[in-house]
């Protein structure tokens, strides 16, 4: 038996490697993704005041600090036993949507689009944003502008583009000023034009990737995410819904604070990334997916006109049942960008969003608080225990990427078995193994933590687990 090792996995956020085991006939026997970073935030935060948690946990990630801040303040609200004023919840919702938009744009334009434009078999030196800037400068500019649209909203309402400071327990620290609202509204038409161009490009070119569509993480699984009271798309202040591969609702209207009744956590000895699972089906049968694809698979509707029009076309892919192929994460991501822009406009035009009262005050009233939001990559849980003085005694975090761990492994194995030939290992085949991970848009620096520099490597092992080939990308 031979082994292939891909280390690092490229064009993702964070560090990981992939191992591919080949049998004596050169066929793929198994393949796995290993997250090679150590995570320490759950222990680091012990002993700190609960009020520091939004700022501390936002440092978990530089890509999606807003998501951590939102889940963190939600947990703190729970500890205080307060519900923030409507204006504050609306401002939080806008900031979170801005985060979704800028992060989805990062994945589509900067990380994934080189595969769509040049093909999965293109030369490695061409599969990057710099080549895109040379050959498709307008598209590259679109990506930068769309990210900037989201980042500027975060800065205007949250205080900083990265690690915002105005999202606090009980609400937010500053009301929405009219000039800020008007400036954001002024920028919405251009952002929507860009999002529609990206969606058109993607859907116009889907026919080129039939083999990838059929084999990139295409399998039955459960899907989980937040929905609002109507069962529609939401990324904040919702309840959990879990559906199966046929679209049957297994669990609905679950308050996130009861997540442990439904979600178990397993660990594997070859990765620092958790493997959460749906408890009633056990481990590993309780595999589920989260993120944009899962969110569209569990909802009744998006709730905004443009997104709902595209959502109807999305549902037709599998005749109204959940879309099972992970290649369509990209499609779902683009629909969510459109939804986010529409939703931001609607919220900002609501006079109640500009009301003066944006914070509720209270002392510690509970010794445990659970916060939950939809991060770009999926459902994000923050669970804090505190003593009567509000000092953190224990922390449990289920990061969005972790929820997809089992599904990513299943996807890597499926793609490796479809494209890897041990007697003729091509770079295009290895790129596809990495690309299925990019469909999930994992944020590994978010789900685990370490110090130092890392590279990407693919190891090929024989039947004795001996490495016969290593492909490294520094």
How would you portray this structure in words?
- The protein is an alpha+beta fold and 474 residues long.
- It has 15 helices and 16 strands.
- Strand 15 and strand 16 form a beta hairpin.
- The chain is globular and about 70 Å long.
- Mean pLDDT is 91; it is low at 449-455.
- Ni(2+) binds at residues 61, 64, 443.
Short description:
With 474 residues, the protein is of the alpha+beta class. Helix content is 42%, strand content 19%.
Integer count of domains: 2
What is the tally of helical segments? 15
The helix/strand class is alpha+beta
Taking all Cα atoms into account, the compactness measure Rg is 22 Å
Q: CATH first level of the largest domain: which class?
A: Mainly Alpha
Name the shape in a single word.
globular
Uncertain regions spanning at least 5 consecutive residues: 449-455
Major beta-sheet overview:
5 strands, mixed
Termini gap: 27 Å
The CATH architecture category of the largest domain equals Orthogonal Bundle
Give the overall average pLDDT: 91
Proportion of beta-strand residues: 15-25%
CATH topology of the largest domain, by name, is Cytochrome-c3 Hydrogenase, chain B
Instruction: Work out the number of β strands.
Output: 16
The CATH homologous superfamily of the largest domain is termed: Cytochrome-c3 Hydrogenase, chain B
Helix content: 40-55%
């Amino acid at each position: 038996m031979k082994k292939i090792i891909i280390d690092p996995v490229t064009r993702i956020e964070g560090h990981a490697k992939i191992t591919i085991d080949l049998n004596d006939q050169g066929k793929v026997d198994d393949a796995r993704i290993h997250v090679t970073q150590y995570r320490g935030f759950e222990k680091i935060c012990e002993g700190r005041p609960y009020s520091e948690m939004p700022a501390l946990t936002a440092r978990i990630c530089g890509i999606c600090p807003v998501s951590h801040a939102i889940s963190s303040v939600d947990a703190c609200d729970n500890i205080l036993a307060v519900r923030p004023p409507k204006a504050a919840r609306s401002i939080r919702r806008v900031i979170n949507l801005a985060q979704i938009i800028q992060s989805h744009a990062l994945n589509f334009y900067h990380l994934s689009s080189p595969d769509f434009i040049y093909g999965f078999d293109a030369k490695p030196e061409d599969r990057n944003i710099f080549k895109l800037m040379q050959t498709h400068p307008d598209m590259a500019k679109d990506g930068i502008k769309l990210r900037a649209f989201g980042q500027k909203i975060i800065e205007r309402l949250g205080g900083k583009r990265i690690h915002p400071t105005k999202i606090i327990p009980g609400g937010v620290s500053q009301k929405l000023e009219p000039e800020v609202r008007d400036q954001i509204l002024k920028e919405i038409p251009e952002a929507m034009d860009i999002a529609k161009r990206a969606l058109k490009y993607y859907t116009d070119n889907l026919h080129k990737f039939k083999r990838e569509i059929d084999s990139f993480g295409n399998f039955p699984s459960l899907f989980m995410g937040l929905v609002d009271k109507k069962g529609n798309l939401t990324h904040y202040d919702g309840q959990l819904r879990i559906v199966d591969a046929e679209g049957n609702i297994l669990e609905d209207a679950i308050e996130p604070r009861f997540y442990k009744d439904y979600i178990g956590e397993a660990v594997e000895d070859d990765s620092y990334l958790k493997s959460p699972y749906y408890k009633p089906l056990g481990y590993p049968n309780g595999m589920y997916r989260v993120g944009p694809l899962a969110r569209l698979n569990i909802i009744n509707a998006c709730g905004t006109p443009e997104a709902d029009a595209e959502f109807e076309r999305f549902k037709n892919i599998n005749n109204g049942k959940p879309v099972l192929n992970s290649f369509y994460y990209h499609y779902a991501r683009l629909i969510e960008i459109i939804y986010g822009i529409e939703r931001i406009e609607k919220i900002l035009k609501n006079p109640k969003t500009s009301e003066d009262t944006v914070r509720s005050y209270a002392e510690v009233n509970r010794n445990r608080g659970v916060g939950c939001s939809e991060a770009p990559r999926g459902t994000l849980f923050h669970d804090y225990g505190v003593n009567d003085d509000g000092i953190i005694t224990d922390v449990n975090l289920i990061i969005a990427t972790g929820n997809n761990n089992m599904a990513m492994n299943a996807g890597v194995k499926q793609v490796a078995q479809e494209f890897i030939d041990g007697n003729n290992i091509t770079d295009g085949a290895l790129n596809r193994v990495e690309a299925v991970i990019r469909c999930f848009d994992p944020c590994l620096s978010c789900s685990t933590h370490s110090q130092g520099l890392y590279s990407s490597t693919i190891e090929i092992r024989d039947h004795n687990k001996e490495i016969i080939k290593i492909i490294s990308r520094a």
